[in-house]
Amino acid sequence: MKRTSAAASSTLTMPLVCLTRVRKSFPLPDGAPLVAVNDVSLAIAAGTAIALTGPSGSGKSTLLHLIGAIEQSDSGTIDVDGQEVTGLSGRALAAYRRRVGFVFQRFHLLPTLTALDNVMAPLIPFRTDFDKVARARELLAMVGLADRAAALPSRLSGGQQQRVAIARALISQPALLLADEPTGNLDSQNGTAIVDLLLRLRDEQGTTLIMATHDTGIAARCDRAVQMRDGCLTSLDR
Ligand code: ADP
Ligand code: MG
Prior knowledge:
Elements: H1 6-9, E1 15-26, E2 34-45, E3 49-53, H2 60-67, E4 75-80, E5 83-84, H3 90-99, E6 100-103, H4 115-120, H5 132-142, H6 158-169, E7 176-180, H7 188-205, E8 208-212, H8 216-221, E9 224-229, E10 232-236
Parallel strand pairs: 3-8, 3-9, 6-7, 7-8
Antiparallel strand pairs: 1-2, 1-4, 4-5, 9-10
Helix pairs in contact: 5-6, 6-7
């Protein structure tokens, strides 16, 4: 295990995420459903970084979407920090989504908002119990962009945009961060810096990280790597 902080190690023994026989299929035009995630069971310890590897189309994104409640599974259970995710709706669903950070391959920043406003975008507008601007500035500083708070995404490099996206994912202080090929649109130098940043969150804040990646070098830097193929987990750990 590659960790240094007491904060991370104190939570190590408990699984934060527990998937049991999770299944998700999509209807195809010809009628036969495509099984994107097939009977996946997996427990992920709190404070660890796990890489989800496997070829394109193997179900990595779908699995992340199910854990993040962006999509609903057909069957099985998804327990995150003691809460069953499948079937959440309304306020409970919105509250859950705020507790989980999501980082995408294509950054998905809002093009008309500054870096600072993008970071604050997930917050409930009327929430006044903390200083949002101060927190957003703190996060931009943490990702090395203190001086770019007023910049629009179009004025930022890909690596900088992904840093803003990571700051945005952290605004609600999530215990779980889901990252879907976060370095897929970056050159290797910027990609390495993004992975450094994500692993620093694990070390310093005990954030649990689930990261889909094609990159074996990145997978090797995580605590665990599991592989998917045709919707199934084909190997539990390297
Ligand atoms: P990966 O992220 O590993 O590339 P995905 O989870 O994106 O894999 O896709 C797994 C399979 O599910 C693929 O065959 C893909 O075409 C299919 N799929 C994913 N999302 C949808 C969708 N919304 N509708 C139909 N098929 C989908
Ligand atoms: Mg994908």
